Amino acid sequence: MNTLFNKNYLVLFVSILILFSSLIFPQNENQINEDNCSFKGYKLYGKIQFVDSFPDIKVQVVDSFADLEVKIVDSFADQCGEWQIVDSFPDVKVQIVNSFGDIKIKFVESFPGIP
Nearest-5° angle of CA 36, CA 40, CA 42? Predict the structure, then answer.
């Protein structure tokens, strides 16, 4: 009877651990935070400057299976995935790479954001 009691506590403990694992282990920093549309603390909307070196984020442009769909806008880039391209005073500096980017993006004409 004592071993059955111990097994029940073990099953209960493992169940609680699995249930609250998202609270115990923080979100992976290398993933897009869907709650505030950010990556590594950098927002994925706003004023974007393309750079060749020392970027905040490296992006790979793809045609399918993108992490973020991006729409280029002229002003008011205040929604997730809306980028206003600037030459100075950016919110985020982005480098476009051919492979091994931090995130994959797809340029779209409508409905930007996280697919």
Answer: 60
